[in-house]
Automatic annotation (TrEMBL):
Lineage summary: Bacteria, Bacillati, Actinomycetota, Actinomycetes, Kitasatosporales
Organism of derivation: Streptomyces colonosanans
This protein's record includes keyword Hydrolase: yes
Keywords of this entry: Hydrolase
Domain CN hydrolase, residue spans: 1-247
InterPro entries: C-N_Hydrolase, C-N_Hydrolase_sf, UPF0012_CS
Pfam assignment, any one: CN_hydrolase
Family (UniProt): Belongs to the carbon-nitrogen hydrolase superfamily. NIT1/NIT2 family.
Designated name of the protein: Carbon-nitrogen hydrolase
GO molecular function, one term: hydrolase activity
Entry keyword annotation includes Cytoplasm: no
């Protein structure tokens, strides 16, 4: 299986329309690979909090349309990173009131929407994304011909229980778009390898380059195999990281070293 991680540069001097066109062109250039991945919030910048509301889109907005066409033109599975989504399709549900979400979009090679994932763990503690956006509450997996993909986003990487749940749901390859800051880059690579080792799964983690609202981005998109070996890693600047990997290695690893079978759940908590 062949995957390309597009570590696109996000800078404030490029318009949203220009970057959207440029991202679509980069996706189309990847015709012939199986899976293409874009980063988190590449339309606005993950730290450009003051632009979230102004640049939020409905799920099937301009970015959706551009990425669906790019996936179809290239004939690839496309994880189109995430967008600031504004809910409001008129269904009357509690999550349909104009709330913003950090929403990932996955398209099939025919350009059909295969999945949408609203980020569960929002970063910022008492500011930024944590207060400006709602939280998702659903696990998302996508069945590709070669592997089952589990979808997570950026800050989710710090919460191993989410990834164990994805594995329990059948995930073999974990795809994680991010807007990770350079100041915590060591955590990025460490956690990507940890999630691969503990879940005996491939990790494809795609970050951004450039600077978001004054916050330098880590870049260093990374692909890790089920034993924790780094198969490929990007630098800090805009780059397309392409790697070939064998999805069958997940089953082989889990069979040869069946650690997941030794999980012990439901332990009694201490009483004080």
């Amino acid at each position: 299986m062949r995957a390309s991680l597009i570590q696109i540069r996000v800078d404030e001097d490029e318009s949203l329309d220009s970057r959207r066109r440029r991202a679509a062109a980069l996706v189309k250039d990847q015709a012939g690979v199986d899976l293409v991945v874009l980063p988190e919030l590449w339309t606005t910048g993950a730290f450009a909090f003051d632009r979230f509301a102004a640049e939020a889109e409905p799920l099937e907005g301009p970015t959706f349309e551009a990425m669906a066409k790019a996936a179809s033109d290239a004939g690839v599975w496309l994880h189109a990173g995430s967008i600031p989504e504004r809910s409001g399709s008129g269904s009357g549900s509690a999550a349909d009131d104009g709330t913003l979400f950090n929403t990932s979009l996955v398209f099939s090679p025919s350009g059909e929407l295969a999945a949408a994932y609203r980020k569960i763990h929002r970063f910022g503690f008492d500011k930024g994304e944590a207060v400006l956006m709602g939280a998702g509450n659903k696990l998302v997996t996508v069945r590709l011909p070669q592997t089952t993909v589990g979808v997570a986003t950026c800050y989710d990487l710090r919460f191993p229980e989410l990834f164990r749940s994805l594995v329990d749901a059948g995930a073999e390859t974990l795809v994680i778009p991010a807007g990770w800051p350079e100041s915590r880059r060591s955590h990025w690579t460490l956690l990507a390898q940890a999630r691969a080792v503990e879940n005996q799964a491939y990790v494809l983690a795609c970050g951004t380059a450039g600077t978001h609202a004054g916050v330098p981005q880590a870049g260093h998109s990374i692909v890790v195999d089920p034993w924790g070996e780094v198969l490929a890693e990007a630098g800090a600047d805009e780059e397309i990281l392409t790697v070939e990997f064998d999805p069958a290695k997940v089953a082989t690893t889990r069979e040869q070293f069946p650690a997941l079978k030794d999980r012990v759940l439901g332990l009694e908590r201490p009483r004080h």
